[in-house]
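Thread: Phosphomannomutase, structure

OP (GT): Posting the sequence first so everyone is looking at the same thing. Length is 244 residues per the record. Can we get the structure tokens written out before standup tomorrow? I want them in the notebook alongside the other entries.
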Amino acid sequence: MTGKKVIALFDVDGTLTAPRKVATKEMLDFMQELRKTVKVGIVGGSDLHKIAEQLGDGLLTQYDYVFAENGLVAHKEGKELAVQSLKTFLGEDKLKEFINFVLHYIADLDIPIKRGTFIEFRNGMLNVSPIGRNCSQSERDEFEKYDEKAGVRKAFVEVLRTKFAHLGLTYSIGGQISFDVFPQGWDKTYCLQFLTEFDEIHFFGDKTYKGGNDHEIFESERTLGHTVTSPDDTRKQCTEIFLA
């Protein structure tokens, strides 16, 4: 890799951590070791606060780039690069129409349990959870198993795609209990506009299949995509590629 400007870009859930869990010290130490060889960036669908809960409070200074909400909130070397707003993009009337429909749909949804916080409003996206984000970890695990068979999120997304086709939105199923909603082009490839100086962008993610929230950036011609199955697998693949 001599002479080339290389960056390793990582998803969070399922790649650096178990879903919504805190990264292990071993993983965090490994990432700092990796930074001695290549630039390292983080790109997650969650907001900055949630990513910091998983990767530590020093997040912005411990990585070269941090892209929260798919890069809609972007930082380089601890400094803010840009912030994009869903509210500005859609306008209040369209946003309200969409949110009202989602809440009605969830109210009529017959699933084993429901908790609270069914919609989380972020800078650049909405996160929709049929069970509600206030559920416990064990309830998350149970819903994930239930959803694999019942296809609750997939069916929900198809209804929204049809009903709101005119809004030009993308729906991305990620994590255990929810899916993200954002304008077309605001998936994880959005962050690539901030990485034009690099000759090679290696992306590591677990949900690289079609419909997964790592798919678009994994498939992008700008990246070299790597599918991982766990944080241990991420470490193994990075060692083989960068540290061997």
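GT: Both are above now. Quick notes for whoever picks this up: The chain has a mean pLDDT of 95. Residues 6-72+186-243 form a domain with the Rossmann fold fold (CATH 3.40.50.1000).
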